[in-house]
Amino acid sequence: MLKLVGAVGSVLVLALLLAPAAEACTCAPPTTIADALRTADAVFFGYPVVARLERRPSRNTDGAVQTQFQVLKAWKGIEAPLVWVGTSLDMRACGYGSFEIGANYLVFAHGSLDGLSVSLCGRTRPEPDTVFDVEALGRPQRTFSTSSGER
Known about the structure:
Elements: H1 2-18, H2 33-39, E1 42-55, E2 64-76, E3 82-88, E4 105-109, E5 116-117, E6 125-126, H3 131-137, E7 142-143
């Protein structure tokens, strides 16, 4: 009986050692607002108007989403008042998750206008967490009005 318990214990220890490690998002320490502006391809303040699922959730991932933003202010890389931004819904893969439609965000995106994306590790934040960053960014390069007036 003692041999059986020892064998089962050995199998359990071996299974734990060979099991795949849980994947988690690991971000570098936060950067300054100046560094974030310099390294981002697009920086803007606006609100999501529509979202669409790009990749369905599966056993290995929570999927991906594209969100269209109404841009109100742009500091870098934005030429039009509407822009699409993608992210993974899988926070283990450093995806930002989902944006709340209608809420204001300061977005630091990477990529080109054909494929901007954000991650959990970036400086993208919802309002009111953006007050100091917006102030530190200074005057935007562009401002856009909405058909319903400025928010």
